[in-house]
Every structure is written in structure tokens, then in C-alpha cells.
Amino acid sequence: MPEQQQWTITATEQPPECFIQAVKQYTPASSGLYAAQLLWQRGIKDRQQLTAFINYKVYQPASPFEFGQEMHLAIARLQQAYNTKEKIAIWGDFDADGITATSVLWDGLEQFYAQNTQLVYYIPNRLKESHGLNHQGIDNLAKQGCKLIVTCDTGSTNVEEIIYAKQLGIDVIVTDHHTLPAERPPVAAIINPRYFPKEHQLFNLSGVAVAYKLVEALYQSLPNVAKYPLEDLLDLVAVGLIADLVQLSGDCRYLAQMGIQRLQEDFKQPAAARRRPGVGRLLELCQKSGDRPTDISFGLGPRINAVSRIQGDASFCVELLTSRDIKRCNELAEVTELANARRKSLQKDVQAQVAQKLTQLDLSTTSVIVLEDAQWPAGVLGLVAGQVAQETGRPTILLSTEGAGEQGAGGREQEAGGEITSLSSNSERAERPANANSTQNSALVLARGSARSVNSVDLYQLVKEQAHLLHRFGGHPFAAGLSLLVENIPLFTAAINQQLRQSLGSTTLTPTVQADLTVRVADLGKELFLELKLLEPCGMGNPVPKLLIQNCWFENSWHRNQQDWQGKKVQYIKAEFDIRDDSSRSAFPGLWWGHYKDELPIGRCDCIAELDYNTFKKRYEIRLIAVRSSANSALNTQLSLTPYILDLRNQEHSALSTQHSGLIIEDCPTNWDDLRMWLRRCLAISRSTSGLENQQQLVIAWSKPNHQLPNQIWLTLVGIAKYLSRTNQLVTRGQLLEKIGVSDQTLLVGIKALKYLGFTVQRQDRSLQFTWNPNDSAENLADEAVARFLAAVREEQFQQQYFAEVPLSTIVAIASYDSK
After folding, report:
1. Which end of the chain has fewer CB atoms surrounding its CB within 10 Å, N or C?
2. Are 471 and 439 in contact, with CB atoms under 8 Å apart?
3. 299 to each of 83, 128, 264, 569, 670, how far by Cα in Å?
4. What is this structure's pTM?
């Protein structure tokens, strides 16, 4: 059974009246207050930002040539292929972002190269090959006479495979959005938005959006060749963007807004007149109309992802999305729907088995849930792990030994991706061998699995610390993929639990649900829906608004098994109900996916829900997220124990100490312990006062760090040490920290490295004295020590970038943990 959840509500300032009036211009039928509160709370605080956020027609998208020299190199190589009639292969990926990216290139490049003769595509098999380029696929393309590979949603770190392709006479253009390699690979071009600073409007592009930018550049470079407008690709771009759960800001939001409009326009056409009959048929099968982002995130995205999860080979999905053959598309759509029904069934089975195993765990002493089973299909483990993590509030790792021993050394772990609800996506597929001694043994008995995290727990760092026990791993703070020897699972479980317990200290992990606004049943309906719709499309950094409804009750509840398109029952439950409170005589409909009606509380309760429009039933309804009896609700207590956190990060805040009372943090933290110290201090003050009006305010006011390159920081430190040695001057540790801009712990690593270069560091009272006697004999040791310092700087800078942008909701979640 899931633990009792803790509920919080997002703290926000009341927006000024002028801003509320500006929002009201877009909501003439309502006050605009709710939308204004949400927009203000999410950083939209002036008219110019508001207009660009809501109206894509006034937004100025970036030119594809913002990618600079790399885009010019890519276009030059594509033009060469165009002029010499070379054969080109698109190398895609099997998730929804990769499939749509492949489809965008297949449709877009088809305007310049003949499909199937001059242009082909290749999608790796998820269950046999996993992500990225591989030698076998490259050999296959070489035999077909391909001279150029254009990757999409993959390839950035495939340096070895790129070199191999080059040896076979094949050039590679990489279009991707995942982790960058340490050095530029030997490619014809690499187009990856990770090269931009994080604030750049192109930084968050997903794989499909990067592919679109390449086609856009080719359209501009060869303006008289294409027969179909570039905008015909935007519906596919929207599907990939929303399904991949990237942050929908900048060009991502702009492309998604335009793409959803194209998707809706095409679906309104008669089936025979649709540009994408396969997409239309999929929407019909999942009873969606294509006009809502949720039609993609709950409809199209999971179905496209399901194919590789169940069948491994998802190549036909490109045909499904791009073919104009209605009969063929209907056939492929039905195969896709069957795969999704099978995925749901498998997911439900694994969920039930995991739930049974959870009953044998003492969650009070478990920090990281690690479970394994020989029969679990690897394709659904990430989905189930995400659900368990959310229900328990604990990082969850699910491992399968299905087919163990057959993977050998060449298999690459399945990374985070697919349908991750309420988690950071945009997985970094930076997979690395963890145990070099084990990678060459093809007879290894390996367990493969997926991991998901919640709230503040950095899952990637947890897994990374146990690299010596792993075969391979990769991922990011909220999701990871890994493999390890079956015999290492008990040791790995004990070690990773001990590590997190030490990191958390006295903090207790508890599942947390956060609401954005408090509303009444009388507020629910068309007016509020249209108000909240201003924020769409929602995604990472701009989540679907969560509504708290207090002192309500349920009527007319019932449930049923969901059925697939053939009428075959799938064990996937949905409860439906009417919700009421004292604000209205009318009830309001709602549903609760994955739950029975008997799970609804009897009598008065509080709930957190999302407001939606059901295009199939043509009604407004709520989607229940969490519910609890009013008598058991700890919301008010929770709010009183959670500090009021004012987020002023990355803003101009001169004279801050006079404008805001309370505790003010101006130095960007490098770890959660630094922040916890402030949170506990704030909570201690809050607990010593009475009443919410005396609640202590915590102001987080650090700015995004302007980092120097780690090598430059090292050279600065060496230069300072030489100067101090030459002048015989003393320096305090604080002066050194301010000069080179690193933490005290990283400075100590740097001082150790200086010692290998011949520097002697002595204390004199509270100061340090540097003396230099160069020593060439320790050169190798010095190189290793400098490498450790550079790694420490990079890690610290990564953490500071994280804390500059971590959502306020995550910080509030930490506060709620520490308030217990």
C-alpha cells in the first residue's frame, strides 16, 4: 500500500492589478485571476513576456543558422549529396521523439532526394540493439551503398561508431539533443542544442525539433526545390516534443503551439483528405481529436512508444506517420493499438507483481527500492518504476534477468525515456562502462533495468557512486538505465540504500503531491478551463495546473475495465464519479485512472485534480490526482510547517535586504545539504512563532553562475600561487575562494594538486603561505591530481547550474520532508 502522502500548495505572490488586467484581455469571459496567479508564479511577469508566451504569432523563432558553422557544414554536405546523387541513410531512434524525428527527415528530405532509392532510414531494434549507432547497422547501410548517415535523436557520443563509418567511406551528420562528447567527434557536422547556453531559445529542442531545424535550413538553402510547405512537418514536431517531455519554452513552445494547430486542422478533414491518415486513425482509436497536448501525452505518445517496448522493431511507425495510403495506415494503426494494449496489460501485470514484492519490504528502513525478477519484460520497467517512485516517494530500481547471459558486452542499456509522468525527461544517454574488467566477457549473467526518482533525490549521482558494482549505466537526475551482474544485486542494494540514508540524515522520504491553486466545485467548468488553457501546451517547467478542492464529496461513482479496439478486456481500471461541495447545487464529473470506485473516500474529503475537456464525451471533467478524507488531511498543518519560499533567482534584486524580510540566500548552493541547512533554520524560526501570519520567509536570491572554463580556473589558481610565492605574500582561504569562484572543498582538491607541482602550503594564523620548488619527478602524479581538480570543478559547476534552475516545487518538497 502507498504511504500516506504529504500535500503542499505552491506559495506565490499576489500579482499586481496591472498584470491581472493584462491577462484578463485573453480571458474576456472570466476574471483572469487564476491564470494570472499561475503565470506570475511561473516567471511570466511583464506584458512582453505574456504576449510572447500566449500568442505564438508574435514570437520570433530562431533561425536554423543560429547553429552556426555546424549547420553550414551540414547543409554543404547535404548539397554535395544532392548534386552527386549520393545515397543517404537516416538513422533514428525507437521512442516517440526518435520516430517523429525520423519521420520529419523522411518527409522533409524527400523533397530533395528520392525515397527508397536515394534516401532510406534505419531504426534500431530496442530489445536487440538499444539506442545509438552500432557496427552491424552501419555494415548494413554500407552494403546498400550509403555514403552519408544523418542521425536524429541520437549519435552525439557514438565516437567509435562514427570512426568506423568513416573507415567504410560513410560520412555522418549528427542531429541530436543528448549529452555532448568531451571533444567534437569526427563528423561532417554535429547539430546539438546542448552547445548553446541554457538560456538560449533553442537549448531545450528535442530530437524531432533539431531534425526540423536541419530541414528548415535546407529549404532556405535550396528554395526552389521543395514542392510541399515546410509547415506540413509541424504536426510531427509537436508530437515528438510533447511526447519527449522536454521543457516547452523558447522555440519548443512555439513549435508545439503551431504543430498542435496543424494536427487539429488535419484531423478535422475527412479521412480521405487527411495529410496524415495514420495519425488520424491513431487519434480515433484513442478517442482524441488532436487539439490538446494531452491527446499526445496520453494518446499518441504512449502508443508510438509501445511498439518498441513490445515488439522491439518500431520501423513501421515511420510509415504509419508519413504514408498517404489510407488502407495501409489503418492496418499499421491497429497493430500499434494492439501493441499499446499489450503494453498496458504487461505494465499492469508487472505493477501487481511489484506491489506484492513491496509488501515484503519495510519501507520505514528502505531509502531506495531495488527489486528484481526473472520474468519481467524490460520494455515496461521504466514505466512501472516511475509509478512506484511517485507512490512511495522513494527512488525505485526495477531489474529483469529475462534473457540474462545473452546480452554480452555490446548491449547498451535502455535509458530513461518514454512516458515519465511528473519526472524530468530529456534523458542524457551518456552511457558509460562502469566496470572495465567485465565488459569483455560475453558469458556474463547480467540483470538489466530502469530507475526512476522523485523530488530532490539525484538518482544519477546515486547510481554513479556504485559504478564499481555495475556493468553499464547512464541517465540523468530523475531517470537512469543500468545493468549489473546478478550476483552483485544484493551488494548494490545495500550500498545504494546506505549511501542515500547518509545523504538524507534525519530526513524522511514521503510521497508528496503539490497543488498550484485552491478552487471550489462552482469554479470548475468552461471559464476556468479556458483560463488555464492559456498556459498550454504544458510540459517540463510549465506543468499542468493542479487544483486543490477542499471539503468535497463524491456521488454516483462506478468503475469498469478498459477495453482495447477489438473488445478484448485489459486489466486497466478507471473509476468515474460526480464531485460536489457546498459552493454549488450542481455536481461536476470526473474520473480516476487506475483505481476502483471503492477507493474513493466516503463522506467529506479533500482532493487534488486537473481540469480537462473530454473531446469524446464533449464535456469538461476533472482528472483525479490524489484524494484523502478531510478528517485525515494534514494539508493545513503541512502548510504551517513549510517555509514560505520566495523565488527571486536570476533577477535584479538591488537593496534586497531592505525590500524583503526573512532569511535571504544569495550564494548558489552546490548540494542539497547546503540548502537544507537554510530550510531547517527557517523552519526552526517558523515553529517558534504562532500563526501563518508570522511564518518565516525564506528568500532564494542567487543568480545563475557565470562560470569560467575549469582549465582557466586551474591556470588562475596556479598563477596566484606563483605570485604569492614570488612576493612572499599571505592570503586567506576566503580571498582564494572569491578569486577563483569554487567551493572550499574543491579548493582543497586544488591545493593538493599544487603540492604535486612543487608548491608547499603552510598555515600562518588564519592565512596561507605558498612556496614553490618545481619538481619534475612527480609529473605523472600531478596530471592525475589536476584531473581530479578539473573533475571537481565540473561537478560543482553542474550542481550550481542545477540549483539555478531547479523548480521551486522541488525545493518546497525538500522543505516538506524536513518539516516532519
Report:
1. N
2. yes
3. 41, 26, 14, 18, 39
4. 0.72
